[in-house]
Structures are given as C-alpha cells and as structure tokens.
Amino acid sequence: MNILFPDQNGNPMPVFYPGIIAPIIVDGTSASAATAAVIDANDKQVVRLWADNNCHIAIGANPTATTSDIPISGGISEYLVIESGCKIAVLGAKLYINVHKG
C-alpha cells in the first residue's frame, strides 16, 4: 500500500488522494451502523472520515459503536489507517468515508 501519492518525479507528496470513487456513507444517527463491506480485504488503507455531528466510531471485523468508543468531532476531517478485513461503525452521526487510492 502506498501511503502518499507520488508527484511526476516519483517523490511522495503529503496529500490525500480519494480518486474518483464516491464516499461510503454510514448513517448512525439513531443507532450504531457499520459499513456494509470491509474497507479492504487484502491490505491496510488510509481513510478520511468526516461526520456531520459529534459521534463515536468502532473499527473491527463486525463492529458496533458505543459511547465508549473513539470520539469524532463533527465537521472535522480525521485520517486513519484501517487494518485489512475491517469495517467502521458509527453512532450519533452520518459518517462519510473516503478511501485513499495511492
């Protein structure tokens, strides 16, 4: 997995590259909800998370988010590395997930 997108000379640039793929949207506004599929079955992936409200997320093979899990502030982008075979669950917001395509 490439973490950074290379410039025209092959040097890594510190930018996020979502490609042309639409974001994965998970609606956990009233109850915990998880991505329908794993983020990547074969490799770690860098993801950009943006929530429309303060919320909590859980990451795992079959996660359920609770108020004891990772807090995410609404309206602020978070960047995480997700292990292969994992899904993301959210509680308290609509979560937009962009997967880095390096």
Explain this structure:
Helix content is 0%, strand content 41%. It has 102 residues and is mainly beta. The protein has one domain (5-99). The strands form three sheets. It has a four-stranded antiparallel β-sheet, with no helix packed on it. The protein is globular and about 45 Å long.
Number of strands: 10
Q: Report the sheet with the most strands, covering strand number, pairing sense and barrel closure.
A: 4 strands, antiparallel
* Low-pLDDT ranges: none
The Rg value, from CA coordinates, equals 14 Å
Q: Which structural class should the secondary elements be placed in?
A: mainly beta
Mean pLDDT, rounded to whole units?
A: 89
Give the proportion of residues in helices. Answer: under 10%
Task: From the structure above, extract its key features.
mainly beta; four-stranded antiparallel β-sheet
Task: Lay out the secondary structure.
Elements (H helix, E strand, L loop, with lengths): L4 E2 L5 E2 L10 E4 L5 E2 L10 E7 L3 E6 L9 E3 L5 E5 L4 E5 L2 E6 L3
Antiparallel strand pairs: 1-2, 3-10, 4-9, 5-8, 5-10, 6-7, 6-9
Short summary of the structure?
The chain has strands at 5-6, 12-13, 24-27, 33-34, 45-51, 55-60, 70-72, 78-82, 87-91, 94-99.
